């Protein structure tokens, strides 16, 4: 059995951990980037409505009435989430999301969204959420009002988000600040909604979130997320040290390699022999790196399947060995006593 090189084990452990963070997070982010919000296709716009001042409730009511007048009889879906609330506001008179089944109950009604009838006080509750477990007789108290729970949706529903527990009528909201997703093929309608907000006394700022390509998304993630940037720099740093280490490692065999090459050995055969010196250490290091990364996974919300760890193990060993092979192949084993013609 070949002697284990513990320095190589240590380097490959660090490299595997950094590679896991970087590449698995890359896959996760690019998957999100390719997905459209709430299963919409392409005809959607994203807006951010903000306000740092105290909001006059009468202004909010007036603005909601204008929005309702504008969007009534239009093929449009409005979704709004507010960081201060755990609910998702929805206006969907055409029943776009009615096609997705609920766990129990019925979809919301939008017949008279500005009226004081029972439709505006209906909500859908996420299954197994805090609100779901606290409702009594299919009713829940929210913001001093009693809401009737008409349906329950699962975490797999397109409208389910990590930060929301219920879905309510958009026109029952008391605060129009938030992140908007507006689905319509009528671009003129979007412009008119933006003009309404701009001309209101709601004192808002509107930002249109442009859809970026995957490469731009990738660069933004690398630059703006500290853990992501650290792992990226770590990979470069570790592989550079790998390069230096492999050069030093192979220099120890310079004389013996020159002799073998002089008397008929090929570089490929020598590569196979030297590979036996490092493969066990690379495998142990990659295994430890995968295990250490797995130990930190429970702190996250998602657990990659076991096959991902096997793939990570293979990729880590392959990348490290590939670098070793490249360094070896371009290494010149010249010795002052033994001159070798490498052009054979």
Automatic annotation (TrEMBL):
Transmembrane domains' residue ranges: 225-245, 278-296, 308-330
Q: Which UniProt keywords apply?
A: Membrane, Transmembrane, Transmembrane helix
Output this protein's name. Answer: FtsX-like permease family protein
- Organism this protein belongs to: Anaerobranca gottschalkii DSM 13577
